[in-house]
Amino acid sequence: MASTFTVHAASGYEQLMGRWSRRLAPLFVDFAGLAGGEKILDVGCGTGSLTFELAKSDGLTEIQAIDFSPVFVAAAKERNTDPRITFSQADATALPFADNGFDRALALLVLHFVPEAGKAVAEMRRVVRPGGVVAAVVWDHLGGMTGMRMMIDTVAALSESGRQLRSRYCFQPMMQPGEMKRAFVEQGLADVTEAELMIRMDYENFDDYWAPIAAGEGPLGKYMTTLDAAERTRVEAAIRDAYEAGRPDGPRSFANVSWACRGIVP
């Protein structure tokens, strides 16, 4: 499996998305549920937003966290001081764990970057005991991320390559209403429920919004690295204009909606 998410530095990811995944993690944990004495698997842990949120629950006995990126795994290990947590590099579509070994398998902002997302759901189901929970959450790129759509729509207006980026970005796996729920049902999970979770992304100014993308982080950053210097300058100016919207540079706040799904292993 390959991930479609581009990462150069953990610090860049933190500014791009880690700070917002930490804001989403408590809502997702409430949706997925927890119980005392459980063993939890965090699939696609990134820098540990969900892992460390889970660790706030004293009742958990073990938290295994995996990610495809060695950059993320190294950064998460460096932060960890909890003996219940183990970070390791692994593939979400081929989890290195025995059948029925966990009470819950959770994935925060991961499945839309897994080309074989259905296979990842199947693997999460495999490693969870009967009666246990599989849950995941992904951003709604098409209709629920106003700050990112502002940027995507701007580049789409400037060039054909921008239009192609928008098509890829808006229709990544598991993002459309009901799509993740159908995948959960197809993989044999029972009592599948879907919900919307919303946070706000608050930026101090345009540089706070733009810096990780300019550095090449994430799908939008990867696109920027394909442009020559003149086109990069033109794109940045247009996106700055969209961000400022005719007012002086400064704080901006954007609503961001995600799809969450939860199912029971029969």
Describe the structure.
- The chain is an alpha/beta fold and 266 residues long.
- It has one domain: Vaccinia Virus protein VP39 (Rossmann fold).
- The chain has a 7-stranded mixed β-sheet.
- Helix 1 crosses helix 8, helix 5 packs antiparallel against helix 6 and helix 5 crosses helix 10.
- The longest helix is centred in the N-terminal third of the chain and has 23 residues.
Work out the count of structural domains.
Answer: 1
What's the helical proportion of residues? 40-55%
CATH homology group: Vaccinia Virus protein VP39
Task: Please give the order of strands in the largest beta sheet.
Answer: 3-2-1-4-5-7-6
Enzyme class: transferase
GO molecular function, one term: methyltransferase activity
Domain Methyltransferase type: 41-135
Keywords: Methyltransferase, Transferase
Helix and strand arrangement:
Blueprint (H helix, E strand, L loop, with lengths): L9 H23 L6 E5 L5 H6 L7 E6 L2 H10 L5 E5 L12 E7 L8 H10 L1 E12 L6 H13 L1 H11 L8 H8 L3 E14 L2 H9 L3 H7 L4 H16 L7 E13 L2
Parallel strand pairs: 1-2, 1-4, 2-3, 4-5
Antiparallel strand pairs: 5-7, 6-7
Organism: Mesorhizobium dulcispinae
InterPro entries: Methyltransf_11, SAM-dependent_MTases_sf
Protein name: Class I SAM-dependent methyltransferase
